[in-house]
């Protein structure tokens, strides 16, 4: 989570400004406005004239204006009239610069004072106070996307994803398809890792997060297939936004919080 700070300019702290953590998922959008502990949780659907549109699909923002309308409907009326909030957004690890740019454009509807982004896996680690001095695997079983991330010293060192999620299980796709995809991605990470980080993280036990972590037909199969312990995160569907809010609390009390995300 990089910030650009002008060391020659005195910046006021942001301890009194409104702070919002946002997890913009393909199926659900979740937000938490600090200092409240309530998590707002709505379908990622924006009204658009004759019907509804899904502006985020398979971890990609496909309709920026519709995403902005969704965020305005969810959060606009909850903000101080003249206040400018500090925002932190979770982002898919492989979303890249394009995703971050589109997300930042969408949140401009909230007139933010500053916008920070954090990889979803890093937010999950923060939610459970994971020891980031050791390698950590995060398996995110989302509705539209399954993503696996390796963190080392808190930084992303490898990541894999597939456009397959729990929503596909409502059709002819059996749960074993997701299990197979997770095994294949972790195996590829092990094969291409010339260090012991992935293996160490696997032996430690991957964190399991996302709505799929609530499905026993997936979670019961993984430990045996991986020959490793699996650690489902408490309230796995809201872990990302809770972790982002925790990171935002730290940033909010830093005197350089008016800096903007690069």
Explain this structure to me?
The protein has 262 residues and is of the alpha/beta class. It has helices at residues 64-75, 96-107, 120-127, 175-192, 197-204, 216-219, 222-226, 239-252; strands at 3-4, 19-24, 28-34, 39-43, 46-48, 51-53, 56-57, 60-61, 86-91, 114-119, 136-141, 146-152, 155-162, 207-209, 231-232, 260-261. A five-stranded mixed beta sheet has the order 4-3-2-9-10. It has a five-stranded mixed beta sheet with strand order 13-12-11-14-15, sandwiched between helices. The model is unreliable at 1-12 and 255-262 (pLDDT under 50).
Quick structural overview:
With 262 residues, the protein is an alpha/beta fold. The chain has eight helices and 16 strands.
List the helices and strands and how they pair.
Layout: E1 3-4, E2 19-24, E3 28-34, E4 39-43, E5 46-48, E6 51-53, E7 56-57, E8 60-61, H1 64-75, E9 86-91, H2 96-107, E10 114-119, H3 120-127, E11 136-141, E12 146-152, E13 155-162, H4 175-192, H5 197-204, E14 207-209, H6 216-219, H7 222-226, E15 231-232, H8 239-252, E16 260-261
Parallel strand pairs: 2-9, 9-10, 11-14, 14-15
Antiparallel strand pairs: 1-16, 2-3, 3-4, 5-6, 7-8, 11-12, 12-13
């Amino acid at each position: 989570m990089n910030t650009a700070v002008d060391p020659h300019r005195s910046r006021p702290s942001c301890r009194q400004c409104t702070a919002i953590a946002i997890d913009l998922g393909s199926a659900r959008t979740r937000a938490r406005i600090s200092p409240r502990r309530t998590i707002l949780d709505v379908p990622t659907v924006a009204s658009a004239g004759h019907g509804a549109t899904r502006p985020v699909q398979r971890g990609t923002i496909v309709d920026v204006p519709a995403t902005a309308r969704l965020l305005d409907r969810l959060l606009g009326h909850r903000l101080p009239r003249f206040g400018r909030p500090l925002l932190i957004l979770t982002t898919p690890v492989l979303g890249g610069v394009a995703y971050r740019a589109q997300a930042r454009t969408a949140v401009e509807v909230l007139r933010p004072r500053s916008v920070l982004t954090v990889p979803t896996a890093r937010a999950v680690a923060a939610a459970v106070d994971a020891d980031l001095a050791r390698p950590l695997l995060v398996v995110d079983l989302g509705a539209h996307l399954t993503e696996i991330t390796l963190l080392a010293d808190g930084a992303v060192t490898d990541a894999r994803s597939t456009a397959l999620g729990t929503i596909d299980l409502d059709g002819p796709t059996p749960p074993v398809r997701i299990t197979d995809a997770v095994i294949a991605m972790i195996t590829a990470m092990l094969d291409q890792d010339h260090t012991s980080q992935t293996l160490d993280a696997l032996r430690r036990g991957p964190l399991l997060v996302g709505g799929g972590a609530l499905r026993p037909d997936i979670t019961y199969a993984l430990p045996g297939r991986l020959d490793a312990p699996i650690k489902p995160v408490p309230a796995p569907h809201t872990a990302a936004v809770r972790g982002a809010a925790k990171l935002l609390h730290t940033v909010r009390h830093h005197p350089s919080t008016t800096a903007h995300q690069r």
